[in-house]
Amino acid sequence: EAAMELPPSHYPASRAAALATGYACYRRGSPGRGLALRAVRRARRQDIDDVGHKYHLELVLEDILDKDSTVNCTAEVLYHLGNKNIAPDVQFTIEGELKNTDEADNIFYNRIKTLEKELVAENIPDSHGNVSPEMEPIHLLAWVASGYVIWQNSKENTKFQLAQIKHVKQVKRSDEYLEFDYLILLHEMVSQEIIPWQMRVLWHPQHGVQVTQDSRQPKQASE
Amino acid sequence: MKILLVFAALVAAAYSEQLFVGDQVLRITASDEEQITLLRVLGEQAELQLDFWRHPTSPGYPADLRVPFPSLQAVKIFLESNSISYSIMIEDVQELLDEEKKSMMKSRRIERSTNMFDFASYHTIEEIYDWMDMLVDDHPSLVSKIEIGQSYENRPLYVLKFSTGGSNRPAIWLDTGIHSREWITQATGIWTANKIAEEYGQDPSITSILDSMDIFFEIITNPDGFAFTHSSNRMWRKTRSINTGSRCVGVDPNRNWDAGFGGSGSSSNPCSETYRGPYAHSESEVKAVVDFISSHGNMKSVISIHSYSQMLLFPYGYTRVPAPDHQELNELAKKAVSDLAAVYGTKYTYGSIVDTIYMADGTTVDWAYDNGVKYSFTFELRDTGRYGFLLPSNQIIPTATETWPALLDIMVHVLENPY
């Protein structure tokens, strides 16, 4: 049960690191802040009998909107043996302060709250990788929320990334929350599959991001 | 009678060999039916070589008539003596033609120079095929275009050959775009092909390489898939071949090679993104390259370019057994990624496919390696997942720029280590 040192830049360390990053981003992200994996500094794996595989990771995360802003993160990822429907357990600690995004978050919040018609958009980024500045917070919100879906559906032999927002529609709410219905495409690296996934995302500047409902969608028959 | 005399005078007018110099176009307005008739008869005099751009039809409506220079004076006398009103619409037709030709050539020159091609944008298949012809036109003694076969949907498979002569020299093979959604690869391919052509004679490394070796570069290795990413599904990876008995289309061209074909690193399901195909080399896109490299017989390196992940990989993908040349390939990869990182700080990882990214069988580089091509490498270009396949076009030139020294490292090593 001793921990085995793993090459940090190769899999399986890189897969566990991607999962941990997605989870951390979900917990700490907002339309004004997304976290991405910059590097894996160290990785060890522990095989726990009858339980599963536990990864100990030392990561460097970067702020998506400000590449020079990085933080160190230690994380533990436990992939459960056997039962395929339990999400991995993830614990993490971020060293130091993340940039304060209150101003950007409030600007976005007020902008959406005062829209006359509910926001609707598609193909973010577009085929050429473009994201308009107005859509950047919508893009980041999806990035953060996809961290939840990635966490819930990851296994030791999968590595998910958000590939594209196919469609997003704002859902009208009578309370103070913002709600969006997203159809995203996830890219799974090992199988190379593009998986459509629908998710309902709730957000408020003081209450963080929450995925309240999500479901895998069937691939289009014509593709 | 008078009319006949005037016609006789006109007939006597000399005709010239010159095409349009001094020719004029007259706008003539007949005021009654009699004048219409006169104009018609005038036009029928073959010796005058008159050319109605707009025929006389009814009184009051203008007719436009090109008059060759030698007939000008006679025609004007005819019109004036019959009180048919006219004005000069074009003073000199040749001058006008010269102007037009000049401006057409100017805009053609803008299109037709590879220096004006926008390397910082993503292009369609037609634009890329046109650009290839421009590259050949601009560097005719270095670059030629070869068709090595056809895709499933009958698109030509083009390879650019860079050669300074010799006969069947040892050669390096480069390909981009085998997975169509990896748009940064075709874009990098264009930039790199242009760079090779530009730097021959300037950069010492590429010059020594091309002085003794040839380079073969297939930029759109999967044209059907590429066209599909433009027309229908930006995320399309595979070929577009129909799979018998399945509603799902396409084979993964990087699982279709005869190296460890059919293992756990590929799928037997036609609906899968890593479907290996019904048998090795079933895909015409793959077979064309297999046949080309095999019959060439002197290929010393195969470099296949993919995205994304920022990795430089070498055989094997189909087995965990290290390749016999693992150490040398690993050292070379280490150097190449270090020189890549030196440009903008972009970090790549490196190693064998099976150790670094995942198990994959039937890959291009494993086939090449098992068929005697020692220096077989796969690049996975930018990024690491932030944009993935949808890499913004403003990263095309930086990506290509940083990859260039890594490619040179490999090619120089191949040159300096003949086998």
UniProtKB/TrEMBL annotation, chain A:
Residues 2-100, 120-223 form the Cystatin LXN-type domain. It is found in: Cytoplasm. GO terms for molecular function: heparin binding; metalloendopeptidase inhibitor activity. The keyword Repeat applies. GO terms for biological process: inflammatory response. One of its GO terms (cellular component) is extracellular space. Keywords: Acetylation, Cytoplasm, Heparin-binding, Inflammatory response, Protease inhibitor, Repeat. It comes from the Eukaryota. The keyword Cell division does not apply. Gene3D superfamilies: 3.10.450.10. Its main location: cytoplasm. InterPro entries: CYSTATIN_LXN, Cystatin_sf, Latexin. PANTHER family: LATEXIN. Hardly reversible, non-competitive, and potent inhibitor of CPA1, CPA2 and CPA4. May play a role in inflammation. Belongs to the protease inhibitor I47 (latexin) family. This is Latexin. The gene is Lxn.
UniProtKB/TrEMBL annotation, chain B:
Keywords: Carboxypeptidase, Disulfide bond, Hydrolase, Metal-binding, Metalloprotease, Protease, Secreted, Signal, Zinc. Its cofactor is Zn(2+). One of its GO terms (cellular component) is extracellular space. It holds the Pfam family Propep_M14. Coiled coil: none annotated. CDD domains: M14_CPA. This is CBPA1 Carboxypeptidase. Belongs to the peptidase M14 family. GO terms for biological process: proteolysis. Residues 121-414 form the Peptidase M14 domain. The active site is at E380. It is found in: Secreted. The gene is Cpa1_0. PANTHER family: CARBOXYPEPTIDASE A5 (PTHR11705:SF152), PROTEASE FAMILY M14 CARBOXYPEPTIDASE A,B (PTHR11705). Residues 1-16 form the signal peptide. GO terms for molecular function: metallocarboxypeptidase activity; zinc ion binding. It comes from Oceanites oceanicus (Wilson's storm petrel). Transmembrane segments: none annotated. The keyword GTP-binding does not apply.
